[in-house]
Amino acid sequence: MRVLIVGAAGMLGTKLALRLASEGVLGGREIESIALADVVAPAVPAGDVPVDTVVCDVASPGAARGLLAAARPHVIFDLAAVVSGEAETDFEKGYRVNLDGTRGLLEAVRGAGDDYRPRVVFSSSIAVFGPPFPEVIGDAQATTPATSYGTQKAIAELLLADYSRRELLDGVGIRLPTICVRPGAPNRAASGFFSGIIREPLNGREAVLPVARDVRHWFASPRAAVRFLMHAATIDTAELGTHRSLTMPGVSATVADEIAALRRVGGDAAAALIREEPDEMVARIVDGWPQAFDARRAAALGFVAEADFDEIVRVHVEDELGNAPSTMKRPA
Amino acid sequence: MRVLIVGAAGMLGTKLALRLASEGVLGGREIESIALADVVAPAVPAGDVPVDTVVCDVASPGAARGLLAAARPHVIFDLAAVVSGEAETDFEKGYRVNLDGTRGLLEAVRGAGDDYRPRVVFSSSIAVFGPPFPEVIGDAQATTPATSYGTQKAIAELLLADYSRRELLDGVGIRLPTICVRPGAPNRAASGFFSGIIREPLNGREAVLPVARDVRHWFASPRAAVRFLMHAATIDTAELGTHRSLTMPGVSATVADEIAALRRVGGDAAAALIREEPDEMVARIVDGWPQAFDARRAAALGFVAEADFDEIVRVHVEDELGNAPSTMKRPA
Q1: How far is A105 from chain B (nearest CA, A)?
Q2: How far apart are CA A95 and CA A105, in angstroms?
């Protein structure tokens, strides 16, 4: 089986490539080769599987066609995207990358021949949903996005479903929860603090909390997200029918739940590193975000997230901190 | 007020232009000029309002920009579309006209300057919905289209909402019911018989009924559709919030309801002209179509359809047959 990851230099793409290269199998089938494409050079993961890296802008005309001609992948992971904040500030870039980029990839698959029908796993987002929300959002919720990013993801979902219905490809869209705990440096995304208030204190650093403690949101770990992507690559799509996109399972947690979990793992010293600094604008943005889902369809298809926020913190400690957060090492 | 109709040579475009030109006002404001654009020359309606016709393919690059530069319309009706059957058989044409055409129009508006924010009335369709359906479909139904046409309309709705949210234009999408009774010659659309079994007998001609009499669907007259378009051009969009597309009211009727209404208007002689000739393929297609809606949002905003199928038949007799169907004039 040949695999292509588009957007391979991102956080999830890097972790997915690492996992595929180290396991060497996907859904019980041996991985012959992995092609990694992104606008910046993706890291080559260790492992025995041959890995090709391609630096290209998949949203530029012909780029996707070139990628497919070279690799003729059985499975394509489409992870390339401009994030929510950037799609909102740069209207044209958001549409170009998130809509035209994905459409160009689907079109390249369509143009690659009648006998070519790869599995396309598309990373969508819960941003396809917008207010007003029910308390718990079910699988039948309409996609009424409140951002350009969510609009672009919802459009890509529609394209994926139509191309799949017409048997031009075999698509699965997975609506990822907010990924938490995001590793790496703090960024300026409005959602950044959800990860920051765990990641920074566990590294012995202060973190700013811009919203109230009763703010609730929907989370899964990077490890769970990689598992979702791999599972989506191998499920029997006959069970999806024409509804090709699935809300992924996750953990509904408040900021207070997060802090309690941090305290249990990192101790009072860690929790003390959170500094409350209310930010009206962040509070207003987050107020328009979903809080909880009943992701029944995905669960029935075998997608599994963490059980609670404690597990999300433990996963972060295991995967990013070598199982030992600095606050656990310091005398309390 | 300056008005532009894109897709002005179609059945609804022609009727809308006629009505606007003869009334000379829209929402209480005088119409200064009407620009009619289509790929074939639109008919120039009688009336005192100056009318410009433009023959162009609005889906071709630059065409929409040219239209707006010339007319700088306050209200744009976007009616241009490849119909459902053609969008299904000609994949590329469907996406080019129904998706790229509408997107190009929205982009042209965006590019026409910061001080330009016209009302854009987009003719969407109940084809944005796909099975499985609840018995009566509410306003919160998710858009899961079962055709490429429905996919293209659903995508255009998402674009319209995002461009409106970003205050690039002021959009209203109206999801039209199946228009019945369609005037003109029988066509090969799968839905054609719904109109044919009324129109043809009232003209003294035989009509074929390819499905069972208990088949139920959702209808409005051409007159109601024109009224929807005009009302959408003038409503206060503040009440729409970010949800810019509305399912239009209509009449839920079975084929048996249609025939009973035909009999009441045209007599037994008319009803006797319907010949049952079951067509498995048509039956299967129609089986995937919605049957009834609770179009509460649109009703609250003042959109009104016919009260029952008898009224739909009477409207057809008044508007298309000079108030006298041929079967009414013949001795029974």
Answers
A1: 15
A2: 14
Q: Which one of 3.30.450.20, 3.40.50.970, 3.90.1150.10, 3.40.50.720 gives the CATH number of domain A2-177+221-247? A: 3.40.50.720
Residue with tokens 């260790």: A46
| Res A270 pLDDT > 90 | yes
Residue range(s) in chain A whose domain bears CATH number 3.40.50.720: 2-177+221-247
The list of chain B residues with pLDDT below 50 reads 329-332
Q: Does B143 touch chain A (CB under 8 A)?
A: yes
Facing residues of A9 across strands? Answer: none
CA distance B203 to B324: 10
Q: Do B143 and A146 touch (CB under 8 A)?
A: no
- Cα–Cα distance list, B10 to A137, A192, B38 (Å): 41, 50, 8
**Stated pTM of the model:** 0.95
Distances (CA, A) of B130 to A242, B212, B293: 9, 21, 13
| CATH match of A192-218+250-292+306-329 with 3.90.25.10 | yes
Nearest to A144 among B91, B145, B242 (CB): B242
Distance of alpha carbon B36 from alpha carbon B76, whole angstroms: 10
